[in-house]
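--- STAGE predict ---
source: upstream dedup step, 1 unique chain passed
mode: sequence only
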Amino acid sequence: MITALVLYDLPAHIDREACRQHFLKIAPDFLGVPGFIRKQFIHDVNGGVAGGSCIWENLAAATSCDQALRRRRPEHAWGVSRGCSAFRKIPCLNP
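--- STAGE serialize ---
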């Protein structure tokens, strides 16, 4: 399982509501994508940063979707840059 974390530095004129509207517009794009499990959109409590986390079955699915949805991402809508990292989960047990 892969968790992809994406963060954007937002321009000053993009507030929480603008993010919400954009996220509502692109959320359906993830439905039915092979390997997709869950998506959560996020917005910094102090503003200025937004993004999301996605859970994928594997890295190939995450990479494939990222390339397929490229034109719908906020960096194209708002002209911002993004950081993206992929993480594998580490199972931990309590003693």
